[in-house]
Specification:
The chain has 9 helices and 9 strands. It is α/β, with parallel strands linked by helices and 283 residues long. The chain has one domain (8-272): 3-Layer(aba) Sandwich (Rossmann fold), CATH 3.40.50.720. The strands form 2 sheets. The protein has a 7-stranded parallel β-sheet, with helices on both faces. Strands 5-9 form a two-stranded antiparallel ribbon. α2 links the parallel β2 and β3. The longest helix is centred in the middle third of the chain and has 29 residues, at 104-132.
């Protein structure tokens, strides 16, 4: 399918994991894609892969917690491909810490990447979308956006906020042609998740156990998030806005009231996404 011909998409954390799969899928559907990544070689490798397959892609180094980097990213996009028409806020980090030992720095880092950056990027891109007569913003949220799971503080606080941002911006701008939606993944097989499984005595058994936490009976792969993202970016979703699409294999449907099937507290902080998020599977 070539649903995104003529579109210019910025994908944060677009060099690997969920972001990489979205970048590849968008390019295969005809979009010109700008891959924003804090580690430039990672983005460059993915951009080269996309170009080798016949797509248009540009790698840009950007730390999405820095307003100057965001402004430079948007300017570079306009210079290379023209004004952006699609924004995917995918970059994020997981900060898991006991609330009473959480530092001010950890709290600030979590919110700067998982919520503030999505707003700042949206604010920078919105004028272009409005001038274009419309466009699409897609926020990669998480199952944590709707379920509070012990041992994962403050990550779900930021992800709940991301859903609020999604709906508030949709309410403000949908009548002017800008659709704003979110995708909420469950466990997705990114490198971070694979590394998490490797910490167990029997990684294969832990993988099977985590797969069983989903109604569909397995964990997902990044391409299964990229497909819904392409749909939301396309005219096929022209009547969809303010939505939080669960792409979790039915995980949220079978969560029990005590917050477990997730393994709580998978490490204190700093697991980067945009990469891929966390072993518990959001972004």
């Amino acid at each position: 399918m070539r649903r995104l011909v003529g579109q210019v998409a910025i994908v944060t954390g677009g060099g690997q994991g969920i972001g990489g799969a979205i970048s590849r899928r968008f390019a295969s559907e005809g979009a010109r894609v700008v891959l924003a990544q804090r580690t430039l070689p990672v983005a460059e490798a993915m951009a080269a892969q996309i170009r080798a397959a016949g797509g248009d892609a540009l790698a840009v180094r950007a730390d999405v917690t820095q307003r100057t980097d965001i402004d430079a990213l948007v300017a570079r996009t306009v210079e290379a491909f023209g004004p952006p028409t699609v924004l995917v806020n995918n970059a994020g980090i997981a900060v898991f810490q006991d609330p009473l030992t959480l530092t001010t720095e950890q709290w600030a880092r979590c919110f700067a990447t998982d919520l503030d950056a999505a707003w700042w990027l949206s604010q920078a891109v919105l004028p272009h979308l409005l001038a274009n007569g419309g466009g699409s913003i897609i926020n990669i949220a998480s199952v944590h956006s709707f379920h509070i799971i012990p041992g994962c503080f403050p990550y779900p606080v930021a992800k709940h906020g991301l859903i609020g941002l999604t709906r508030a911006l949709a309410a403000e701008y949908s009548a002017r042609g800008v659709r704003v939606n979110a995708i909420c993944p469950g466990y997705i097989e990114t490198q971070n998740v694979v590394d998490y499984f490797a910490t167990f005595p029997d990684p294969a058994a832990e993988r099977i156990r985590c797969g069983g936490l989903h109604a569909i009976g397995r964990i997902g792969v990044p391409e299964e998030v990229a497909g819904p993202a392409a749909f939301l970016a396309s005219s096929d979703a022209s009547f969809v806005t303010g939505e939080a699409l669960m792409v979790d294999g039915g995980m949220s449907m079978v969560l029990n009231g005590h917050g477990l099937p997730f393994v709580p507290g998978v490490g204190p902080s700093g697991m980067t996404s945009g990469v891929d998020a966390t072993a518990t599977g959001g972004s």
